[in-house]
Input
Amino acid sequence: MTSLLKPDFVRMPLDEAHRVLVAKTLETSADEEAWPIDAARRETLAAARELGEKPTAARFLSVRAERVRERFAQADAQASGKALRTCEEAQLKRFPIPKLRSGTLTLLLAVLAYLAGTAADRWTSDGRIVNLLAAPFLGILLWNLMIYALLVVRSALRPFASKKSADAERTSGARSLLEAIIRKTAGLKLTRERRTFVAQMLVLLEPQICAMAARALHLAAAAFAAGILASIAVRGVGTAYLVGWESTWFANDPGRVAQILEAIYGWLPAALAPLPALTPESVAAMNLTAGGAQNASPWLIALMSLLLIVVIVPRLLLAGFLSWRIAAARRSVRLALDDDYYDALFEALVPARREVVLYADASLGLGGTGRPQQDADLDLLFERLRGSKAPAVLREGLRSARVERFSIWEDDPAERFGKLAGMPACLWLDAAATPETEVHGEALRRLAQACAPDKAILLLDLSSLAQRFGPTADNVGMRRALWTRFAESFGVDVVVLGI
Output
């Protein structure tokens, strides 16, 4: 049988991860009548057989989810008389992928930012006078440059960042607010049945949500700059702008102002910024407080080119990159396998679980041949093991042991135990019987011979005596000591049950 070790997570396309979560929700919410206790194990083993040798964990989960969904759809089709295809579609409608309504939010932010940008040029100019040192305009450029630098630093440090610090980044700022709005709108009008499912789906969609929120902010920043650019261009048709500068700190230092303007505009190509030479004399002639000013046309062209190069183009490129990341995130989502549901699936695939043979004495009334009965026997065994000092290895092996009926008085132990051929085995006996060398001793001796060294164990069940006399009664303790000495004389370890 195929053996798979459970990884911490798997990566798969969003559609496949969605089907896995639908199957999980159907199984965990169904009652025992609709989904018997052995049904999950049966589908797990069937999926493993279908895949053959060495499948990936992601492929195993995907194939098994399809089988589970098909079983539930068949049951619904039989109950309702509808077609199987109709019932499968009803499953997906009942548990759909949450819709991340980021498009409307992005468009709204972009429109508001554009309208704000059309009025922003009035913050940087007094009527038709444009101040080249106006703080709002320089602030727009510096803010965008700071954002780019921050993105570069975060990208460089991301491989070294812990998950805790990454989560802290997402809990503050405008982007976290947009992410919260996207999540909230995706989970509107939920029924109680779907809340857990949608919460699990939103964990898968978290990278897309983060990228959508960041893309909305980049497009809003580009729209804001486009609004400024459009306003200047349109108003320039009917307004004769004059350009200059004024400053409290540099009023008597035109050379310093020339250096500042050179740093801002000097790197632009001449085709985009046909500016005059920036010398202290030419800059001094533009001092607004001294009555100086120049024709604004070349400066406005340079300013518009600067907005295009520093803000609009980079922001659109970043938005395009995030659109690619959103599409890539749909192709490969991270499904964490960190709960009992996935543990049970992969435990059923471990061959060692089937290597222990449990012989239950007929006097216990156990050892049924059907798998549901054997599961019930194992559940009872683990209930009576509670509080015992059974080794962890034994507990793990017994979780899916093969239960066989054995009569201590009628069966030939040499014949029954001879087929073990070195496999570990347990003999489950009721301690109410008095040990006899010819009967119980022979069975223990044959068991020790047939099993691998130190792999023969007597499960001594004291539950009937404990119920009759009490778990602390002297005769219960004496019977326990008697059986322990008796079994160990034949080289068989003892694990006590029921007290």
